[in-house]
From TrEMBL:
GO molecular function annotation: acetate kinase activity; ATP binding; magnesium ion binding
Complex and partners: Homodimer.
Species for this entry: Dolosicoccus paucivorans
PANTHER family referenced in this protein's UniProt entry, alphabetically: ACETATE KINASE (PTHR21060), ACETATE KINASE-RELATED (PTHR21060:SF15)
Organism classification: Bacteria, Bacillati, Bacillota, Bacilli, Lactobacillales
Name the record gives this protein: Acetate kinase
Known role: Catalyzes the formation of acetyl phosphate from acetate and ATP. Can also catalyze the reverse reaction.
Gene behind this protein: ackA
Cofactor note: Mg(2+). Can also accept Mn(2+).
Key words, A-Z: ATP-binding, Cytoplasm, Kinase, Magnesium, Metal-binding, Nucleotide-binding, Transferase
């Protein structure tokens, strides 16, 4: 048996899937929450059962230790040699790391050096890579970066209109995120349309709690809505997306804030659909409230749709055309209502949904026969994409 771990470590969490390769069959999955906080929890799903362990888990090292104990206790693995690959999601690989990369001590140090660009994610991800390297020295270990798909952006799209020295000296540029998902759905779209990816202009809409839109031309990311950090772009569950930065000092004075990180926290955690609606960051709740006539929820949805349409319009203009628009992630793949609203508002481009085909959560082409542009629903699968990259680099 050849098993590959897909690992996604956050500052206080660790999500995992154990996937049988090359069959791409998910054998077990779960997460550890509240690492370094009290009342930590490990949850493991295997063979239709869910196992829970509640104990204080002081650090990621202990989280991985406990995970292995549980995998053995519930007979998920017989011995460590069953696990031949480990893929680690890493949030920021800067502009030099253009592809998934074998994990070496040097690579881990590079991930640590880039911590300034992703302070909450890169440090625990580097730590978790070290722990796994100790635990599974024989397994092929690969780092898969959220940013690498976007390293193909041309300078005109990654540079901000500020003095160029700030890019040259401090690395201020657009890095983007969700690259693994955008790449995965773009590749699937080409297969579903039965056309070479290298000939297609695609707009991929990853609409989850965090959300981003990417322009993919000839198989390469040419522009994306997230920026220097994931705060930029469209309206998200709790993130503001694009705003005029002059709002920051103005609001800090009004709110008596002296630390700019408190202001950034508001923009990351209390804004977006949550801040606008006052209801929830969860689109299901907001759609429900809007249905009952809640005016703030109605306006939150209007703004959400509007920002997505603006980015789609921008990318149709800058790519000078589009062959396919792809919807994915929590909202994108599940909300027929949202897809319908977004596409109806841009029908001038000759884009039209087939309402019956759109009534789905599965992989499907959902545009009408007469639509000038294909519209596709493609559930994303970042874990499988990570496991495939491990196989590719074996
Ligand atoms: P992330 O990985 O960024 O946390 P997901 O891609 O899982 O997020 O997306 C989560 C969001 O998907 C939830 O906040 C919820 O609003 C939305 N979602 C899930 N199912 C539906 C649905 N049926 N209709 C509308 N929104 C949905």
């Amino acid at each position: 048996m050849s098993l590959t771990f897909a690992i996604n470590a956050g500052s206080s969490s660790l999500k995992f899937q154990l996937i049988e390769m090359p069959e791409e069959k998910v054998i077990a999955k779960g997460l550890v929450e509240r690492i370094g906080i009290d009342h930590s929890l490990l949850e493991l799903e295997y063979n239709g059962e869910t196992y829970e362990v509640r104990e204080d888990i002081p650090n990621h090292e202990r989280a991985v230790e406990l995970l292995f104990e549980q995998l053995q206790e519930h007979n998920v693995i017989d011995n460590y040699d069953d696990i031949t690959g480990v893929g680690h999601r890493v949030v920021n690989g800067g502009e030099d790391i253009k592809d998934s990369t074998l994990v070496t001590e040097e690579l881990i140090e590079r991930v640590e050096e880039l911590s300034e660009l992703a302070p909450l994610h890169n440090p625990p991800q580097a730590q978790v890579m070290r722990v796994f390297k100790d635990k599974l020295p024989k397994a092929t270990m690969v780092a898969v970066f959220d940013t690498s798909f976007h390293t193909s952006l041309p300078a005109e799209n990654y540079l901000y209109s500020i003095p160029t020295e700030y890019y040259e000296e401090y690395g201020v540029r657009k890095y983007g995120a969700h690259g693994t998902s955008h790449k995965y759905v773009a590749e699937r779209a080409a297969e579903m349309l039965d056309r070479p990816l290298e000939e297609l202009k695609l707009i991929t809409c990853h609409l989850g709690n965090g959300a981003s839109i990417t322009a993919v031309e000839n198989g390469q990311s040419v522009d994306t809505s997230m920026g220097f950090t994931p705060l930029a772009g469209i309206t998200m569950g709790t993130r503001s997306g694009d705003i005029d930065v002059s709002i920051l000092p103005y609001l800090m004075e009004k709110l008596n804030l002296t630390d700019v990180s408190d202001m950034i926290d508001i923009l990351n955690k209390q804004s977006g659909v949550l801040g606008l609606s006052g209801v929830s960051s969860d689109m299901r709740d907001v759609e429900g409230a809007a249905n009952e006539g809640n005016e703030r929820a109605i306006l939150a949805l209007d703004i959400y749709v509007n920002r997505i349409q603006k980015y789609i319009g921008q990318y149709i203009a800058t790519m000078n055309g589009v062959d396919g628009i792809v919807f994915t992630a929590g909202v994108g793949e599940n909300s027929a209502y949202m897809r319908d609203r977004i596409i109806k508002g841009i029908s001038w481009f000759g884009i039209e949904l087939d309402s019956k085909a759109n009534d789905t959560r599965e992989e499907a082409i959902i545009s009408s026969k007469d639509s000038k542009v294909a519209v596709l629903n493609i559930p994303t699968n970042e874990e499988i994409a990570i496991a495939r990259d491990v196989e590719r680099l074996k």
